[in-house]
Amino acid sequence: MAVAEETGPETVLAELAGCRAPFLIGVRHHSPALAAALPEMLAAADPEVLLVELPEEFAQWLEHLGDPATVPPVALAGSGEAGGLVFLPFAEFSPELAAVRWAREAGVPVVPFDLPLAERESARGRVDDEPAVLADDEPSALDGDAPSAVLDAPSTAPLESPSPSPVPGRLVSALRARAGLRAEDDLWDRLVESAAPGGTAEALRRAALLVGWALRADGGEVTEYDLAREAHMRRRLAEHAGRRTAAVVGAFHAPALTAPDDATPRPTPSGAGSGEQVATSLVPYAYPLLDERSGYPAGIRDPEWQRGVFRAGGDAGRIDALLTDTAVRVCAAVRAAGHPSGPADAREVVRVARDLATLRGLPAPGRGELVEAAQTVLTQGQLLGRGRVVAAAMEQVLVGDRRGRLAPGTPRSGLGPAVEALLGELRLPGPDAPARRELRLDPHRSELDRRREILLRRLAVCHVPYGEEGEVAQVGEAAPLTTRWTVEWSPSAAAMLDVAGIHGVTLEQATTGLLRRRHMHEVREGGPTAEQVLAGLTDAARCALPELAGERLVQTAESLPASGTLPELLTGLDLLSGIEAGRWPGLPPKWRADEVADAREELGAAGARALDGLAGSTEPADARALVDLAVRAGEGGGGLRLADALARLAAEGTPLIRGAAGTARVLLGQADAAEFGVRLASRVDSAESAERRAELSAFLQGTLVAAGPLLETGRALDPLLERVESLTDRAFLDRLPALRGGFDTLSPAARARMLAAVEDRTGLSADTLPAAVADPALLAWLAEADLAGREALMAAGLADGMAQAAYGEAVDSNREDTASPSDTPTTPT
3-class SS at 752? Predict the structure, then answer.
């Protein structure tokens, strides 16, 4: 600033308000009071050029933004090649929109003079990797530059609770004390918005400039990024020296426009931020997204109320009428929700709000007084019951559901209208019917579902936030044939379609162009890597782009066998198997069958070579990968290399790997199932030492990673089950930890199948004891075992009471399991 910090507020305010090069109008991005008074301010300044704090790339849209036929809310959106979608929403109560419309009517040229989007990433010192809906800035509360909206539905809190304010500095504290504000009161709201009714436009301008300067002076060091923006604004302002200028700028930045041009280092764009192509658009917006509870960081609470304040034009009487009308509508919404609320309640809300405004010295009740009055009168002390109903009613009335509309003739990219027409053809949510829908698609049986699936996949690749894929329950290990989606039309979807339109005028063209651009980026970075090749083939196949998928298929066959890890080889084999089986609705049947088979053979051979590296592994995940890879590679006939690798691992690997390799050989028909079962059972017999029992546990883990397919062979596990059944109690208990460690590797589905196999063999259900336990001899034997268990508990150092309790529970359990309707109580067992 040109003024030292020690300078008093009166002197600073006089210099800022008296500045005429430019005439300074400090604003907050959404300010009903300033938006209503701004035409009068500009008329008094009579500028020849109006400068507005907007990125320079949006200049082409200002004519359409200011068109009277454009119905707010609308949003300017822009995205560069480096990614990052910038959203700048405008409502009727946005001062920038009021300034642009005044200039259009007055014939004054408007110049957006903020830092260009193409230079912002380099000014920040970072570049984003992927396009996304990102915040353009994290501004102060008084910054006119709006970050992008996070497009979520607004949450319904029980009731609004004041958020804590940051620790105020010396100047802010003085202003708060002078105004008699509470700690939770917003300084701008109290000194600018609430004080505006009945005041003059010049007094409002001076109040805004003062608050912006105080927050800047108390806030400490300004970020380098903001300094770069302000330096750029000063340079653009200097281009119009000698002409009458007015600048509509965030009040936080207004003092910086009076500083010398060399006071701030200039940004030095480089890399992706220099000369970058930026796509911009003007899209409709909606009040629910403009509300800050939607996640939009520069939003404003309750847009419908703010619109009413703007239309009141600073007249205290009209604001009081707005208060009455809003209170009546809130009470009606509470009554519609099934709770008693009538005219008397509305009248009391208005009375309390007026009294609060009088106590605070305000010319008219504001939004804060309305919220407090409604909370006091309508909730009746039930914050979590009736209070939630009141909160929902207030949100419905105060936020509103208005949606913007572009003026006829506003330019759009060819992609947006094409996709909107396609959405209508496929009966999906679009601009005219944006409501959220849940879909379950079966693209293999329905042509409509197939087209919908391809559309949603292409939109996802183009980073258009339209559909969100959900999980589908699987039956067994088979891949699901259906998909679940949640789809919804939003302004961000429209904006991203305009951004993606630089790659093509149809969705197919745009998707192809974006995927080819991604591939070029991978090549520039020294790739593509195995992971990128698989992702590219997957996206091309899902998006029904056979030509592009063919190029990725060639890369898969060439690069994946040489550079892919074992999990990547598994993923590749799964992907190619799905293509062969026709599980990808985007590709025609038997698509490049010979090339796909050749690629599978190459990946299988690479997998066989990778198997040797698992010989010393003790990780169950490696055993599972071994079996999966061997089975997938062997589906095409296997080969001598695979057979040799599995035989070597079955003979030389760790016990875990020997078990997995043996299982794989059985499943591929390279070893006899019965013979393998006998070898497995023999390990149970030989597990007499701790070392042998540890080997048994590891071998079982490796064997049972594919327990389901082994059970289907009918012979591989029979010898194991027979041997366990024939063990004496002592031998079984000795081997029990090892057996349990081996069986712990079973998945829930495999565990259920194993249990079913055991029940079939024994004829007994696992959760019940046989009726034969009513036999006196057997009951005596069970009682003896229970007593031995009790002694073991005592020997382990458990308290007598705990042992007695455990014993009593066992007795009760036995009594319930063995009793029949005609039974009488027996001796505890």
Answer: helix
Percent helix, strand, coil in the chain, to 5, is 60, 10, 35
8 A C-beta contact, residue 134 and residue 95: no
Instruction: State the Cα–Cα distance between residues 656 and 661, nearest whole angstrom.
Output: 9
DSSP 195-212: T-TTS-HHHHHHHHHHHH
Specify the 3-state DSSP secondary structure of 636: coil
Q: Tell me, what DSSP letter sits at residue 246?
A: E
Q: What does the pLDDT read at residue 798?
A: 63
Q: Residues 6 or more apart from 91 whose CB is under 8 A from it?
A: 30, 72, 73, 97, 287, 290, 303, 306, 307
Question: Pairing relation of β-strands 110-114 and 23-27?
Answer: unpaired
| Residue 255 predicted with pLDDT over 60 | yes
Specify the DSSP element, H or E, that contains 811: helix 800-818
Q: Is residue 125 classed exposed, middle or buried when 0-12, 13-18 and 19+ CB atoms within 10 A define those classes?
A: exposed
Write out 678-726 in H/E/C secondary structure: HHHHHHHHHCCCHHHHHHHHHHHHHHHCCHHHHHHHCCCCHHHHHHHHH
Tokens for 194, please give them: 């609430």
Residue-wise burial string across 652-665, b where 16 or more C-beta atoms lie within 10 A, e elsewhere: ebbbbbbbbbbbbb
Q: How is residue 540 written in tokens?
A: 């091309």
How far, rounded to the nearest angstrom, does the alpha carbon of residue 531 sit from its chain's CA centroid? 22
Long-range contacts of 624-630 (CB under 8 A, 24+ apart): 624/660, 624/705, 625/566, 625/567, 625/570, 626/657, 626/660, 626/661, 626/664, 627/660, 627/663, 627/664, 627/667, 627/705, 627/706, 628/570, 629/566, 629/569, 629/570, 629/573, 630/661, 630/664, 630/667, 630/668
Q: Which of the 8 DSSP states describes residue 61? A: G
pLDDT in tens, 528-570: 898 999 999 999 999 999 999 999 999 998 888 888 887 888 8
SS3 of residue 430 by DSSP: strand
Nearest-angstrom CA–CA distance, 829 and 824? 14
What DSSP state is assigned to residue 490? Answer: -
User: Coil, helix or strand for 32?
Assistant: helix
One-letter identity of residue 130: E
**Residue 731: in which H helix or E strand, if any?**
helix 729-743
Point out which residues pair with 281 in neighbouring strands: 77
Angstrom distance (rounded) from CA 599 to CA 306: 63
C-alpha angle 250-276-284 in degrees, rounded to nearest 5: 55
pTM score above 0.70 = no
Strands (DSSP E) found in 392-451: 437-441
More confident residue, 567 or 161: 567
* Residue 163 in tokens: 């958020």
Q: What single-letter amino acid sits at 113?
A: F
Q: Please, which residues have CB within 8 angstroms of residue 727's CB and are 6 or more apart in sequence?
A: 684, 735
Strand partners, 611: none
If 0-12 CB within 10 Å is exposed, 13-18 middle and 19+ buried, where does residue 238 land? exposed
Q: How far apart are CA 470 and CA 483, in angstroms?
A: 7
- One-letter amino acid at 39 equals P
Tell me, rounded to whole angstroms, the distance of Cα 296 from its chain centroid.
15
Contact yes or no for 307/298 (Cβ under 8 A): no
* Residues 290-316: tens digit of each pLDDT: 887 766 666 688 999 999 999 998 898
b/e sequence 438-459, b meaning 16+ C-beta within 10 Å: ebebebeeeeebbbbbbbbbbb
Alpha helices in 19-162 (DSSP H): 32-45, 62-65, 95-106, 117-124
Cβ(188)–Cβ(301) below 8 Å = no
Amino acid at site 135: A
Q: Where are the alpha helices (DSSP H) in 219-338?
A: 224-238, 287-290, 303-312, 316-336
**Other CB atoms within 10 Å distance of the CB of residue 267:** 21
